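Example 351, ligand F0G.
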Amino acid sequence: THQWRGIIEEYRDRLPVTDATPVVTLREGGTPLVPAQVLSERTGCEVHLKVEGANPTGSFKDRGMTMAITRAKEEGAQAVICASTGNTSASAAAYAVRAGMVCAVLVPQGKIALGKMGQALVYGSKILQVDGNFDDCLNLARSLSENYPVALVNSVNPYRIEGQKTASFEIVDALGDAPDIHVLPVGNAGNITAYWKGYKEYSADGMSSRTPRMWGFQASGSAPIVRGEVVKDPSTIATAIRIGNPASWTQAIAARDESGGFIDEVTDREILRAYRLLASQEGVFVEPASAASVAGLLKAAEQGKVDPGQKIVCTVTGNGLKDPDWAVAGAPQPVTVPVDAAAAAERLGLA
Ligand code: F0G
């Protein structure tokens, strides 16, 4: 058959599985790499979007979760736990269903998008809202996994990184080589760690001639790596990356420095501007945190940091339907018309 088989089957020889491993999959990965015409014109570069919102639960987390849940299953775990700003929990909940496991989820109270809460609920996870932020949730999840029979599936779990690195493989496979620059939003910093690992492995094996410079962007109110210190009370409208003490901080700095890249911040205003541009000019509807990569590219271009003629990939990490509030907010209310073609035509400016 021609159906994409999921990242474990497609990249089996590059992942920690054996023939005996019970693969738990929703056929994640194989996501579109979409040429971005307006962004290319604005930067004078060849810009592509890696649209990770096309994964089974609507975010890149599925790449890591197929691996983490598969290995948890192989090791006999009956329950998994994660802390989440919403996407990890949606993904863990779905893959736990496929594996026949119990899934426990810890989210910061009042700070996850409605679509993500709906996913955790409908997949039947055991969800607790914690009176604290994501960093508090992660500490709690770690402590529970150390003291109770439940496996931690946050990106501190190395199998998560293994699964997520396959996005780099797909990009090199599609472009024929690594891009010059890869741009990502950064929250807990697992994904930039994973992409860098993937690019390094592929180039070491001669699958690409080079590795890209890694550019990461945090939200200004939640930019501990940029500031060089933990942010105690992180804030941003991009709730997915509202994180003050990233678990993979050291690895993100290594990715930045080894690749000759940088990690900078973008304001909520810049994020929302990129969010609207992506939907209205490129036809790609992402959640706000995902737009941080594109906001960062535009900021860098305005600062003269983007030499023309380069190949650039921006990962857009999550589907816009996860957090529709921002699509509706600030947009004009649709007008109501009678069932009347002339009236409708007039309102549409056709008459
Ligand atoms: N974009 C989205 C849509 C996310 O959900 C996340 C992280 C990131 C970017 C940042 O990726 O953490 O690997 O640097 N979401 C986690 C979660 C924290 O719980 O869903 P990162």
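Summary: Residues 59, 61, 84-88, 155, 185-191, 240-241, 287, 289-290, 317-318 surround F0G (CB under 6 Å).
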